[in-house]
Amino acid sequence: MKLSNIDKYIPCIFFDKTFSIFSMVGDDAISFLDRMSTNNIYKINSSRTVITDNKGSIIDILTYKVIDEKNIIFVSDIGSDKSIEYMKKYIIIDDVDITFQERLNKFIIYINNSDDSLNLEKYRLINKHEYKNLTRYEIFLEDNEIDNFDKYSLKKISIEEKNTLDIEMRHIKINESMIKANPLELGLIDIISFDKGCYVGQEVIARLHNYKKVSRELVPFYSKSELEINSKIIFDSKSIGNVLSIQKKSDGFLGLSLVKKKYASYYPKKVINI
């Protein structure tokens, strides 16, 4: 089952909303974020990184950029102070201060991997997610930078179209009310470093990865009836997973679910009909 006709969307742009940008400043800024999150902040100076608790469950995902050895800027996926306050609890003797900087406009751009006409890496704060032949960029811009995109003649898409593309690309937006999940279950292995030092939740995530103990995976679903976010997916009278996202279509509902692997393997096309 093909979820959407990608060709009619790509390349395209969606304006999300404004997000708060924070700074992490001090002699220990890089070492602190490195031991609080999954990515290797020393080696990768601009990307995404996952904040996890001591059980390896996701608290937040940050888009960050290392400005210099004492200054990092970042934005929170969940858009609240939850992960900020969580990180601050771990500041004991570290020379690091986390403060609000400004609000920036968030744009989401979808292009084919082969499209090299857009020079997006030049922007101050950016992340990307690749899936098959598509790339999804999130870019955070000041007001005076927005006009730069007019020259690209990108198709402006609706929230419904944006949600459909995210389902196609197996992209989940983290929010505070989402069921507990670890980054490996959500396919975030590309922003996890397995050769860096310890971070909160590292032991659990390493064990799940090394011993192949990840028990759930992201699977698209199609349903004739609307389902609530986090609600259980029942198949053959069994609870096989939970709904993470859903979008109404003309003939039903599409979404992403977090499903037990032993049930996901029953579906060769990786789309569950419920």
Can you describe this structure?
This protein has helices at 29-36, 82-88, 159-168, 202-210, 261-264, and strands at residues 12-25, 46-52, 58-68, 71-76, 97-112, 125-131, 134-141, 155-156, 216-223, 232-235, 238-249, 252-260, 272-273. The protein folds into 2 domains: 6-168, Probable tRNA modification gtpase trme, domain 1 (Gyrase A, domain 2); 215-274, Beta Barrel (Elongation Factor Tu (Ef-tu), domain 3). It has 5 helices and 13 strands. The strands form 2 sheets. Strands 1, 2, 3, 4, 5, 6, 7 and 8 form an 8-stranded mixed beta sheet that branches. Strands 10-11-12-9-13 form a 5-stranded mixed beta sheet. The model has no long low-confidence stretch (mean pLDDT 90). Strand 6 and strand 7 form a beta hairpin. With 274 residues, it is mainly β. It is globular.
CATH architecture classification of the largest domain: 2-Layer Sandwich
Low-confidence stretches: none
Radius of gyration: 19 Å
How many domains comprise the coordinates?
2
Cα separation of the termini: 13 Å
Number of helices: 5
Element order, helices and strands?
EHEEEHEEEEHHEEEEHE
Report the mean per-residue pLDDT as an integer: 90
CATH fold field value of the largest domain: Gyrase A, domain 2
